[in-house]
Here is the input.
Amino acid sequence: MKEQNQVELKARAVLVSIVTRNDDADEVEKSLDELERLLDTAGGETFARVVQGKSVPDPRTLIGSGKVKEISELCQNNDIRLVIFDVDLSPIQIRNLEDDLSGDGDRIRVIDRSMLILDIFALHAASAEGKLQVELAQLQYTAPRLVGRGAEMSRLGGGIGTRGPGESKLESDRRHLKRRIDALKAELAEVEKNRRTMRASRDRSDIPQIAIVGYTNAGKSTLLNTLTGAGILAEDKLFATLDPTTRKLTLEGGESVLLTDTVGFIRNLPHHLISAFRSTLEEAVYADIILLLLDASDPECQAQMEVCESLLSELGAGEKPKLYVFNKCDRMTDELSGARTAIKAGEGDRIVYISALTGEGCDELCLQIRDIIREGKRRVTFIIPNAEQGALSRLYSEKASVEEVEYGYDSVRVVATVDDRVYGLMKKYDPDYKAPKEDF
Here is the structure.
């Protein structure tokens, strides 16, 4: 029983942030709320939250010696061994903070927001690519913060902030970190090559590709499961999904689309993570349509939408056709329901409200997807004489969406969705086509 309590105590943490003269105190508190959720996802528990008001950050410890002493006493008196900062810390700041917080007592580990996110990524990475991406991001970010920390690195990490490659591995390979990083980049390049081959195959099929993107825990995996029966893991936790999953969905009317679940976005997503997970995040870049999924029950919905749009622009997908999908409407309170109309995606943008969990609104979502796909296109039945079957090859070469091909005695019946240009080439095979009357 004593050992179990010790494990529980190790998972308790003090969260720390700073408000400078240029910061909004309310935004700092909201960011701390998110940090607390991240800690919960990592398997930890928040013991206390400390916010330091300071005109400019202290270069040595960020928060100043007085606040460091206060947090040190809090930790020592309550057997807390983990302090998490809601901002990125430099390697020297981490070392100074750990030295000052620990004093003559047991060592107190200090990590920052990025290290906590990396820890969660390491916890949830399932595929070979995901694990490679996580290890690369960890080595690029945490290696300089771990190298030189002494005997502490000679043991395997067992708590929050130590998952992944492991501290003992970093210690034994510290002289070869660059070599390891280069090797990981080479492996990921090969994986990315395979991913490009898969994308090319999907492109040749000419099936519209749709990326489900959004803030972490918005319900992307649940939506994919509801629409396609994908059966992928869907948990009420941040970053439950790291690996993209693609499934085929047939819409009412016969059109088929490929839906891809993607890794969630979050405010202050570290740039090294964007770099390491670029091949995964680029599913949004190569998509024809983006479903921007948002948690309508979250008071921060509007701010989360702005974060997602900013990251999409950074990835080069900001101008893609978007459908704004407000999820979790089954959780809407009267107060939040009144705010529905206040949340605007933009004038003229497509918006739909759903509950991915109950299925409410998903039929309307599918109709909206179908309408976007059909914009500028028409679904036509062509009757092509057997002697002119080259016209069928033309449909394929023009990347028309060919849905049905039925060979008859003297003709081929083809159902396809085409744009105006392709229809102009094929209209003579449309039995319903009527040539315009000429004026004399």
The chain has a mean pLDDT of 80. The first strand starts at residue 12 and ends at 19. The chain has 16 helices and 13 strands. The chain has three domains: 2-116, 207-374, 377-429.
